[in-house]
Here is the input.
Amino acid sequence: MDQELAQQMTLCESAINQIEALLSSNPSNWRSCLEVARSIIAALDGSELLSRTSLLDEQLKLARTLQKLAYQDPDSGGEADIASWCVRQWATMLQRHPDTIEILKGLGHAWLLKSQACLARIERDEKNGSGSDSSSSNCATRAQDIRNEHSRDENRIHTSDYVEARGLLRPALENLSRAVNIAETQGGADGPLLTLAAEAYMHFGNVSHPQANEYYYRQALQYLREASQVLNYSLEPHLQQYLTDNMRLYA
Here is the structure.
């Protein structure tokens, strides 16, 4: 490695370490890192640091850290320019290192994060749209309410937000499930990877047609069950509760 590239890598690693440290110690102040992150991207675009296959570990750390920074507020859509740069880096790395678990995981996670703003809009719209009176004692009225709810579900999945969410989540499913499959041929997937894959399948089930979503929920539960059995790994409480509540339905 020539002196100029070595110096560039040292400066980049120092800046990335600073971002990591701040996100760990004071995450609410994440916006203070954005200018540094954009400076890193500007300095590295076209750099040999991003093209050398021997520097994969450094490239992975760079993409992971900047992606974490970009999506500190995922429901708002994140920092689009930084997030898009990370997706391009994951895709480039995957071309050079196909079937690498960490790259597939990073790319799948990128698409899962990208879907969060759309999923948040869907959740808000559903909360605002819910409000049928379930206290009515009239059986005919309740039956009509059920028919209306089914009709709303049918119409809802064709709206722009649902279509967009499925489009963003599909590459998340593809990359994360591929990462899991490869990991299982190499001794088993770890808990965080299985949990990410489960979350992607859960979300996809939520925005899919009611007659087709069972497959996605089953797959999510399978991944959660496998994650819960990983040594020294614990599911987040809400995911453990989801597994407990639903496992009997899909046993």
The longest helix spans residues 160-184.
